[in-house]
Write a structure and sequence with these properties.
248 residues, alpha/beta, Rossmann fold, six-stranded mixed sheet, five-stranded parallel sheet, 9 helices, elongated
């Protein structure tokens, strides 16, 4: 069956010249964007009940821009002035760059990994004397705590924000040829909003192994998978599939 409509379970890109815009122009398909999940911040009171005292830490491990936002939000709510000598360990350059929203980048001790947490852990390993805080969501990849524990660090996790299922009830009678997912939480949201969902002729596109596992476990057939050596991005995977089915 040909593809005419796609729903991406993420916010719309902020840039006009996104790969999705190119996909729309080249393949003449309609693409809508709708976050299936959203983030809600924990209160300072909720963080305190986790026995988190910000003055006890000398280093912060940041795995996402959400972690950056909610660490500084909680610090402000607790009226805690983050010391200039605080060290920041960022999983990626994007997270490190985002820190500039809150600190003068060149005047701070900022350490950057590559693209994975394993790469960042090699840098963290060189700073074993620090007292680390990991501000995170209530949902955390198992590899993060397991890696930190293996390093035998002095570290604590604080749940500073939560991943919450979005209300999608207005989509009850709306159908798309392809649904695109980037996390197990997105799959979870689909079935919490539509418990009776049947895939039928809807194609499912998934990004990452954990998303594939969640979709398969939920009984979905994953028609489009990324990243692969041939299609490292979701838009490339979508374009390849659309070219195959729409030319028939």
């Amino acid at each position: 069956m040909k593809v005419k409509t796609i729903l991406v379970s993420q916010p719309a890109p902020k840039t006009e010249n996104s790969p999705y815009s190119e996909l729309i122009d080249k393949q003449k398909v309609k693409i809508d964007f709708r976050p299936f999940i959203h983030v809600e911040g924990a209160s300072a009171k909720e963080v305190r009940t986790q026995k988190i005292d910000l003055k006890n830490y000398t280093a912060i491990i940041l795995t996402s821009r959400n972690a950056v936002d909610h660490f500084f939000r909680i610090a402000e709510e607790m009226r805690f002035t983050v010391p200039d000598e605080m060290k920041y360990f960022c999983e990626s350059e994007a997270v490190a760059y985002y820190l500039q929203k809150y600190v003068v980048y060149r005047k701070r001790k900022i350490y950057v990994g590559g693209r994975t947490f394993e790469e960042l852990s090699k840098i963290i390993k060189k700073h074993k004397d620090e007292k680390f805080l990991l501000p995170s969501s209530d949902k955390l990849k198992d590899i993060v705590p397991s890696t930190l524990n293996k390093l035998e660090l002095n570290w604590e996790r604080g749940i500073f924000y939560k991943t919450v299922v979005s209300d999608l009830s207005d989509l009850t009678d709306v159908f798309y040829d392809i649904l695109v997912f980037f996390s197990p939480s997105g799959i979870d949201s689909l079935f919490k909003n539509f418990p009776e969902f049947k895939q039928n002729n809807t194609r499912i596109a998934v990004f990452g192994n954990t998303t594939v596992e969640a979709a398969t476990k939920a009984g979905l057939n994953c028609n489009i998978k990324a990243p692969t050596p041939e299609t490292p991005s979701m838009t490339m995977a979508l374009e390849k599939y659309i070219c195959q089915v729409n030319k028939k």
